[in-house]
Amino acid sequence: MVQAGEGFNLYSSEVRQAMSVFFVPEVIKIPLEHVILQTKLR
Length: 42
Known about the structure:
The protein is mostly helical. The chain has one domain (1-42). It has helices spanning 13-18, 26-29, 32-41. The chain is elongated and about 45 Å long.
């Protein structure tokens, strides 16, 4: 459930402005072959 409230940032507004609006998911950053090989090795 989401409710109205207060949020606190642990970084400055300059850092926030430099952040991307959308973060690239880790699954897109790493080649799928690498993930499959790491899974099979465990």
